[in-house]
Design goal:
By secondary structure, this protein is mainly alpha-helical. It has one domain (about 25-85). The protein contains 3 helices and no strands. The protein has helices spanning about 5-15, 30-50, 55-80. The longest helix has 25 residues, at about 55-80. The chain starts with a helix and ends in a 5-residue tail after the last helix. The relative contact order is 0.13.
Length: about 90
């Protein structure tokens, strides 16, 4: 009994333990990403209500904003599938 206790203690200290609690994943989409998405929505709205066509450049800018929003949504979907966020 006197030898078993120190051996058990030594084994507990030397053998790496596995955590019962996995590393917590990020809970939600980062606030900065949500803020950027909101800014893009606001910019899109402003451009849609702006006067003039600007030689088609205003419409092109709206399309670029739509593409940026699609990319952010794809990134969010990827992060959820790969368990980076919930």
């Amino acid at each position: 009994m006197r030898i078993a206790t120190p051996l058990l203690l030594a084994a507990m200290l030397l053998v790496p333990t596995v955590s019962m609690f996995p590393e917590p994943q990020q809970r939600d989409v980062p606030a900065e990403v949500e803020s950027a998405k909101q800014a893009l929505h606001n910019a899109r709205n402003e451009l849609q209500h702006a006067g003039g066509e600007w030689g088609g450049h205003r419409a092109a800018a709206v399309k670029h904003i739509d593409e940026a929003l699609r990319e952010l949504n794809e990134g969010e979907r990827w992060a959820r599938e790969h368990h980076e966020i919930r």
